[in-house]
Automatic annotation (TrEMBL):
Zn(2+) 1 binds at residues 80, 173, 202. Dihydroxyacetone phosphate binds at residues 174, 203-205, 224-227. GO terms for molecular function: aldehyde-lyase activity; zinc ion binding. Keywords: Metal-binding, Zinc. Coiled coil: none annotated. It holds the Pfam family F_bP_aldolase. This is Ketose-bisphosphate aldolase. Zn(2+) 2 binds at residues 101, 131. Its cofactor is Zn(2+). The active site is at 79 (proton donor).
């Protein structure tokens, strides 16, 4: 199924779709085993840094083959695309979906760059996500957040024809110093204003379960998770390495991969409303 149709379908049923970032074969397989065990679909996403790290075609091939190998329904998505050129490279490489992140640009420039990517994505039949409002990036102050305004969201979606919109309702990338407070009333207003796009929650790591469930109940459909995956993978690896001197990496990595699987299974239960 096309990602756009899947998100619309799920959104109508007040259910979400988990979008997880992957960094290497181990984190990819950790995520895929979780989706295989729960039977849920999943979005596999790559940032520019992960693309640079693995190589574009290698990263896509790993994702595609992984979905086949584990028998999981899924889509490959560019996370936080910073330019039309990168989005174009990803479309050419066979991505199902691309995000163009103009969230730090003035409204009219964000509209312009998003229109350009929507136009290019058409002939590929690819799905496009944009961001309006600002969700603080890793290392940026959470005070930098700028909530999405419902009337602007309506205008933005009408002018761009974008499929999915990342909105700022109180999350931030990375972990939180203090528990986040998602603005569910704001989400409800955005949902009431904007009829023709689905909504994306960035910065889901560190968001308490009850707030994630509320966000999905009131209109969030795609839920982005990255930091918690990196964290559990590396913390588990660090523990193993301090405890023994095994040098066969094929014996060491699986424990960290399994930790990712357990984490993601828990998130899949939340996002799929179980
Ligand atoms: P976290 O790192 O907070 O999970 O956010 C992930 C994200 O939004 C990826 O786009
Ligand atoms: Zn994000
Ligand atoms: Na977060």
């Amino acid at each position: 199924m096309k990602l756009k149709d899947k998100l619309r379908d799920l959104s109508a049923h007040k259910t979400g779709l988990l979008a997880t970032n992957y960094y290497n074969l181990e984190t990819l397989h950790g995520v895929l085993r979780a989706a295989q065990q729960t039977g849920d679909p999943i979005i596999l996403q790559l940032t520019q840094s992960s693309i640079d790290y693995m190589g574009l075609n290698t990263a896509v091939a790993m994702g595609r083959e992984g979905l086949k190998q584990f028998g999981v329904e899924g889509w490959i998505h560019l996370d936080h695309g910073g330019s039309v050129e990168l989005a174009q490279r990803c479309l050419d490489a066979g991505f199902d979906s691309v995000m163009i992140d103009g969230s730090e640009l003035p409204f009219s420039e964000n509209v312009k760059i998003t229109q350009e990517v929507v136009q290019r994505a058409k002939s590929y039949g690819a799905h496009v996500e944009a961001e309006l409002g600002f969700v603080a990036k890793l290392g940026q102050s959470h005070a930098h957040n700028g909530f999405t305004q419902p009337h602007e969201a309506k205008q933005f979606v009408e002018e761009t024809g974008v499929d999915a919109l990342a909105i700022s309702i109180g999350t931030a990338h990375g972990f939180y110093k203090e528990e986040p407070k998602l603005q569910i009333d704001l989400l409800k207003s955005i949902e009431a204003e904007v009829a023709s796009a689905t909504f994306v929650l960035h910065g889901s790591s560190g968001v308490p379960e009850s707030q994630l469930r509320a966000a999905i109940q009131y209109g969030i459909c795609k839920v982005n998770l990255a930091t918690e995956i990196k964290n559990i993978f590396m913390k588990t690896l660090q523990d193993i390495l301090t405890q023994n001197e095994e040098i066969d990496l094929r014996k060491v990595f699986p424990k960290a991969t399994n930790a990712v699987t357990e984490l993601v299974k828990g998130k899949l239960d939340i996002v799929n409303n179980r």
